[in-house]
Amino acid sequence: MTTSTQPTAALYMSDVQVSTRYGVHRSTPWNWLKKDPTFPKPISLSPGFRRWRVSDLEAWERAKAALAAA
C-alpha cells in the first residue's frame, strides 16, 4: 500500500525559509508576528524549534490577495 503524503520537511518552514519566500530579512517574519494579527503563528515542534506550517502561510497569502483585489 502506498501513501501520498509529503515529507515532513515540506510541511514546515523555518524563519530563514519564510524570509526567503517573501524576499525579506530573517527578522521580518518575527516582526510581522508581533505587528500583524493575521500573520500565522509558528508551532513548536520541540523546545526552541518553531516552524511555520506551509498551509498556514498559503492561507495567509490568499487572504492578503483577496483583500488587495477587493
Tell me about this structure.
The structure is a single chain. With 70 residues, the protein is of the alpha+beta class. It has four helices and three strands. A three-stranded antiparallel beta sheet has the order 1-3-2. A hairpin with a 2-residue loop joins strand 2 and strand 3. The radius of gyration is 14 Å and the shape is globular. The relative contact order is 0.16.
Structure summary, number of beta strands: 3
Strand content: 15-25%
Query: Which shape, going by the Cα principal axes?
Result: globular
**What would you report as the Rg, rounded to the nearest angstrom?**
14 Å
Overall pLDDT = 90
The percent of residues in helical segments reads: 40-55%
Record the strand order, biggest sheet: 1-3-2
* Regions with little confidence, pLDDT below 50 for 5+ residues: none
Task: Chart the SSEs and their pairings.
Blueprint (H helix, E strand, L loop, with lengths): L7 H4 E2 L1 H8 L5 H8 L7 E4 L2 E5 H16 L1
Antiparallel strand pairs: 1-3, 2-3
Short account of what is shown:
With about 70 residues, the protein is of the alpha+beta class. It contains 4 helices and 3 strands; from the N terminus they run H-E-H-H-E-E-H. The longest helix has 16 residues, at about 55-70.
Identify the notable features of this structure and list them briefly.
globular; three-stranded antiparallel beta sheet; 4 helices; 70 residues; alpha+beta
